[in-house]
Amino acid sequence: MTVKTEKFKTEVQHLLDLMVHSLYSNKDIFLRELIANASDAIDKARFEALTNQSVSADWEIKITPDKDKGTLQISDNGIGMTMDEVINNIGTIAKSGTKAFLAAHQEKEMKNLPDLIGQFGVGFYSAFMVADKVELVTRKAGPSSPAVRWESKGQEDYTLDKSSATEQGTTITLHLKADAKSYLETWKIKEIVKKYSDFIEYPIKTPAEKKKSDGSESTELEILNSQKAIWLRSPEELKEEDYKNFYSHISHFGGEPLLNIHFSAEGTSEFKALLFLPSQAPFDLFMMPDQRKKTLHLYIRRVFISDECSNLIPEYLRFLKGVVDSSDLPLNVSREILQENAQILKIQKNIVRKVLAELKKLQENDKDKYLTFYKEFGKVLKEGVATDHANKDKILELLMFETMKNTDGKLITLKEYLDAMPPLQKDIYYVTGESRAMLENSPHLEFLKSKGYDVIFMIDPIDEWVVQSIPEYSGKKLKSVGKGDIELDDESKKEAEEKTEKADKEHKNLIEFLKKELTEKVKNVRFSKRLTESACCLVSDEFDPSAHMERIFKAMKQQMPQTKRILELNPEHPLINAFQKLYDKNPANPKLSEFADMLYDQALLTEGNAIPDPLNFSKKLASLMVTGIEKEVEVVK
Ligand code: ADP
Q1: Among positive and negative, which fits the CA dihedral 582, 584, 586, 587?
Q2: Which residue in 259, 359, 527, 587 has a CA-CA distance of 20 to 30 Å to 241?
Q3: Ligand 1: distance of its center to the CA of 318 in Å?
Q4: 504-540+563-636 adopts what CATH topology?
């Protein structure tokens, strides 16, 4: 094969351009990323070696500076790559993280952006922060694969070529830029490895001058990292600093974890786990599982097995990062079989119990920290209410919501809501919608406001779905204020019923007229027990989807049959009497039908929905204004 030149995908070109020209801070992390890749590659080879002897080796990562040539080499004897893999992994194909990384950079000049590179799954390219040419020679472990040579100057293209290398694994040669020559210094390499890669399980070696007893000097390979599996040690032996460093190693996050959960389980399943609650949500939190960066590693007796064991933790705890090391799982079965192993489910059960308990503790003992966690990951945790029946009650205790009576941004638990309930209040009230601002003025809340009852604002899109799984909490029903009948305490109920019954009698023919007039749009027209100020509102039938739910589906371009709702009128609003007068005068007046439509449109508008024919609505409104203004002018005269 002759040398082949290939173009990078446009996004990769942008990314490289950024690496080469715009990222100045914290360039050290390029080494962390390349070592992490080398270690991942050995993990994979070691796993393979469990069933294929020809792959096994004395695992090591070597860092070799060459001051004469101005190059730094990072090599591993891990799994290596085939030609296709080179093209897919670091060549033409842009990964989802590439776009996200560019977007993050554009959004704000993030000072610690280089630190986050690994998180976006584009760590390899960080080499171009320090090198103006990168060569990669790799040979896939196993008997038959030829070696490949890849080279790029970090501009629009790269070249591919055959290589005569015979060893399995990958060697990356960085031709350092003039301002990056300090990375050739052994002390500098040592410093970076100690800081970021001390926990890597495989020895990271670099040539170092050694003085012999006879005074002469020789160059020997020195191991730079302690290789300590920190999760196997007891928490008493460890310092905060140890946890922090390991966290930044496993999460590719520079910051500190919000919480360390380090524990061991004995009994039906034996394992040790070191889990972290991150302080910041990653960009891929809501991406499909296979597109997310994997940061929970399963080990079996210190051997890395997989970072894709999806049964290890439930989806709603996917923000956890860390390591689980089992002592009783079988080592030599395929990952797929392992995935289904009953033992894994036992581990999961155990982890869930521990993590939920730790979250509860955090919520009780360090509210601020808990709120930081909740604001980042609450949306994910909530999924558990709908998906983990066994732990639903525990998760419910952890949820927090904004409410009508609390100030903007303040979150309370369901228990706090209960504790503050007036003695007569029967049910827990909630309303779903896009934002607090929109809900605050909803006519649905008027009556509850006047009674001094609080209403939970459910403003995460997921709430609409989650709340279906919470018919009640602590023996109290959860009632949507925009659905069905509102059943207040006995006294208010009586009072409201008297009003609606009276209005029913007085306006019987008007209601019949409106029902007929609006029959295409609503399933019923009736007097309301929930309005004290507004003239009208729309409510859903008890078991129908809410208007908000329909909006969410529409936004997702999903089909959902339109359900008709109920138009409720305020029995005490002057509009009703005026309407009645007009009707009594001449039931055939064409204005009546026009006003009926406007009533419906008005109800749509107050809940933040679009009206079907805005142009027509504003024409009618303008004409009403003219009448109103002329009357006003008359009075002023
Ligand atoms: P990430 O490691 O987060 O996937 P990178 O950009 O660092 O992102 O690497 C891209 C891919 O290239 C890796 O997922 C891996 O498949 C491959 N790769 C990188 N370095 C090596 C290596 N030393 N040995 C084998 N494969 C590697």
Answers
A1: positive
A2: 359
A3: 22
A4: Four Helix Bundle (Hemerythrin (Met), subunit A) (1.20.120)
The domain made up of 399-480 has a fold known as Rossmann fold (3.40.50)
Cα of 34 vs centre of ligand 1, distance in Å, is 8
| Alpha carbon of 37 to ligand 1 centroid (Å) | 5
Return the best residue to mutate from 12, 37, 46 for the ligand 1 pocket (most ligand atoms within 8 A of CB): 37
Mean pLDDT over 5-10 rounds to 86
230-365 classified as CATH 3.50.50.60: no
Cα 80 to ligand 1 centre (Å):
10
Domain boundaries, the chain: 4-210+219-223, 230-365, 399-480, 504-540+563-636
What's the CATH number of domain 4-210+219-223, 3.30.565.10, 3.40.50.360, 3.40.50.10420, 3.50.50.60?
3.30.565.10
- Protein residue closest via CA to atom 19 of ligand 1: 37
For 413-422, give one letter per residue: b (16+ CB within 10 A) or e. ebeebeeeee
**Banded model confidence at residue 428, pLDDT cuts 50, 70, 90:** very high
Secondary structure (DSSP) of 231-277: GGS-GGG--HHHHHHHHHHHH---S--SEEEEEEE-SSS-EEEEEEE
Give the integer Cα–Cα distance in Å for 469 and 463: 10
Residue 122 has pLDDT above 80, yes or no: no
Closest atom of ligand 1 to 33 CA is 7
| Pocket mutation for ligand 1, best pick of 43, 73, 76, 89 (most atoms within 8 Å of C-beta) | 89
**What local confidence, expressed as pLDDT, does residue 370 receive?**
97
Ligand 1 binding pocket (C-beta < 6 A) is: 33, 37-38, 41, 76, 78-81, 89-90, 118, 121-124, 170
Q: Cα separation of 250 and 229, whole Å?
A: 12
Name the burial class of residue 632, with classes exposed (0-12), middle (13-18) and buried (19+) by CB atoms within 10 angstroms of its CB: exposed
Probe residue for ligand 1, chosen from 90, 95, 252 as the CB with the greatest number of ligand atoms within 8 Å: 90
Residue 280 DSSP label: S
Nearest CA to ligand 1 atom 16: 89
